[in-house]
Design goal:
Length: about 625
């Protein structure tokens, strides 16, 4: 049953509704009056998962679907703010949160850096945003470099001898050890990313970035000077801890500074630079190996040392960039937040600019909601629902879907290609020089393919992109299996022909991943990458070319996983996603029916949600008997 409850027209007792969460959105003005004083509807929504509408209508005790709409004045759009319009001493409309800002943590002073208005670059507007994108891109490029650098290191003869993994022929113990050296980095990334999320909220984005740079610098220095297996493993964990923190906080920082209509382009740009860093690491090692004429020790130590260049630049410059205005507002530094917005949104730093005022007001609304919903912000709340007063928004389901997709991203087999590419091409019959050269070319294809996602994600949709990506990658890996198998069994020109098949479909596989699955945005990714990089050397040693077939099967298994569990997010507002996830069913087709019902019952409100001009969250009628009495 679908019931429309309108305050002032139907006497519905408050006890019939329970609001599970809320949001506040600034509605664009429709007339010349102040848009913040415009009376509009504050909407809460939940669609019943029951498909039998007739049964719902005939049963008064049946759980119903409701749209609860009540007139609200915009300055109190947040359901937790009960005050009227408030103006500062300059006559600007401001949002006064219903809860005070949290007290600053005392231990924050022990962390270096932080936001200091007097140290900011003398740039404004677009120039400042370009600088922010450049420094953020440098951090993401460093992360890509750090991912790719081990591809050449683990194949260096002197490195393998120093680590004690140079048996000939290679033993299962050596294969596991090589995989462990690579994979243990991602164990550090898991904990670094989790800690960075906590620190980012407590001490700020800028301090967290600088802390991550310091940890990564220590790890990089230890890697460069490593003298044995234990030393290298400890160094890899430390380095992963630092870079995992950077990878977790940099995208948040850059997106909170970017305008809402430019965040997609920034995300695509960061992915592009991530793969550019990976490609740069590979070609640097290729040049050192075949051109420089340097010693074997220098060939693997210099690339590890070069990562310090990225970190030194980041440490030297990051204090000159602004803090996230959202974080500043969250901790009660509204004046600093307004100052940052003026710097990045206007060309003259005008604090009274309309764009600055509107965005500041919107930020304060969101901050007010976040303070009230603090019990839902912890890791335990997100992953297991612990401490959450109301579970109707299914936060754990959302969290595990994200983590699961990131793990599955690595189970598609991309780690096999990017980290162990020379081994892949050698398995197809190529000599070491040609295998290394093909690996470098493959990374260039990988980098360029990311640009395809910029034009396809929003137009084609996320689900379709993941689906066709998995299909093409499965087919490519099947042909890689076939080519590698016959390359091993053949000789002479036949070996070259089958090797070309492997090379061609490896390029197709990598390019497809870059255009589709790469755009899955560190916890789940680190887990999946760690597993794959650990087992890959062992797999190649144990089953050879059948490794390709294993990951081909995993791509096929991913198809029903995506089809049944992951809703489409492209061109859907956050309000619509809330309605989908408010359903008890975990299956996409059941969830989508709720939006279809809403579109039929109230097409005007449905259109408002599509355009981001409606405030909605899930609300369930918990006492249908009370509704009946009303």
């Amino acid at each position: 049953m679908m019931t429309l409850l309108i305050s002032g027209k139907l006497p519905v007792p408050e006890s019939t509704l329970r609001i599970t969460t809320s949001s506040a959105t600034l509605v664009p003005p429709t007339n010349d009056s102040d848009p913040r004083l415009k009376t509009k509807a504050s909407v809460s929504t939940l669609i019943s998962p029951d498909d039998n509408d007739h049964q719902a209508k005939s049963s008064p005790d049946h759980s119903a679907v409701s749209l609860a709409i009540s007139p609200t004045t915009h300055p109190t759009a947040s359901p937790f703010a009960t005050h009227g319009p408030t103006y500062d001493v300059l006559g600007r409309l401001v949002f006064v949160p219903s809860l005070p800002a949290p007290s600053p943590v005392k231990w924050a002073r022990f962390f270096p850096g932080g936001y200091n208005p007097s140290l900011q670059l003398p740039l404004r507007g677009k120039k400042m945003m370009w600088s922010i994108q450049a420094i953020g891109g440098l951090a993401i490029m460093f992360y890509g470099y750090d991912q790719g650098v081990m591809s050449g290191v683990v194949n260096n003869d002197q490195f393998k001898s120093l680590m004690g993994v140079d048996s000939s022929p290679i033993t299962p113990r050596d294969s596991a050890a090589i995989g462990g050296i690579v994979a243990i980095y991602y164990a550090g990334s898991i904990f670094g990313g989790m800690l960075a999320g906590y620190l980012g909220d407590k001490i700020g984005r800028v301090k967290t970035v600088m802390f991550g740079c310091i940890i990564a610098t220590i790890g990089g220095t230890l890697q460069t000077s490593a003298g044995g297996m234990t030393w290298m493993c400890i160094a890899r964990v430390i380095s992963g801890f630092g870079t995992g923190g950077l990878n977790a906080i940099i995208p948040v920082w850059s997106s909170e500074l970017a305008e809402h209509n430019g965040r997609g382009a920034i995300l695509a740009f960061e992915f592009f630079l991530n793969i550019a860093g990976l490609a740069f690491a590979y070609w640097l090692e290729f040049g050192l190996k075949y051109v420089s004429g340097r010693s074997q020790s220098f060939i693997w130590r210099f690339p590890l040392a070069f990562q310090l260049v990225f970190l030194i630049v980041l440490l030297s410059l990051f204090s000159f960039f602004p803090e996230s205005p959202r974080w500043l507002a969250k901790v009660g530094r509204e004046d600093d937040a307004r100052q940052v917005l003026a710097v990045i949104r206007t060309e003259d730093g005008d604090l009274d600019d309309d764009k600055v005022n509107e965005e500041m007001y919107s930020i304060m609304e969101v901050v007010d909601v976040e303070r009230k919903m603090e019990d839902q912000n912890g890791y335990m709340a997100m992953m297991f629902g612990w401490g959450v007063a109301d579970s109707k928004m299914h936060l754990p389901r959302r969290t595990w879907l994200v983590i699961g997709l990131q793990i599955w991203q690595e189970l598609t087999g991309i780690g096999v290609i990017t980290v162990y590419a020379p081994t892949v091409f050698q398995s197809a019959g190529y000599l070491p020089y040609k295998a290394d050269w093909l690996s470098g070319v493959n990374n260039i294809f990988y980098m360029l393919s990311v640009l395809v996602a910029v034009f396809t994600l929003d137009r084609v949709g996320r689900r379709v992109t993941l689906y066709w990506g998995a299909v093409i990658m499965a087919i490519s890996l099947a042909f890689c299996t076939l080519g590698a198998r016959y390359a091993v069994m053949s000789s002479g020109t036949d070996t070259a022909k089958w090797g070309a098949v492997v090379a061609t479909f490896t390029f197709i596989y990598t390019s497809t991943f870059g255009a589709s699955w790469l755009t899955v945005p560190v916890l789940g990714w680190s887990i999946g990458n760690g597993i794959v990089t650990e087992i890959t050397p062992f797999l190649f040693n144990a089953i050879g070319e059948w490794t390709f077939l294993l990951f081909c099967v995993l791509n096929v298994l991913g198809l029903p996983y995506i089809y049944f569990l992951y809703p489409e997010t492209a061109c859907r507002s956050l309000e619509q996603m809330d309605i989908l996830f408010a359903q008890d069913s975990i299956f996409v087709h059941r969830q989508s029916m709720s939006l279809e019902r809403l579109a039929k019952v109230d097409p005007e409100f449905f259109h408002a949600m599509e355009t981001g001009q409606a405030e909605s969250r899930a609300t369930r009628i918990t006492d249908t008997a009370t509704e009946k009495q009303a």
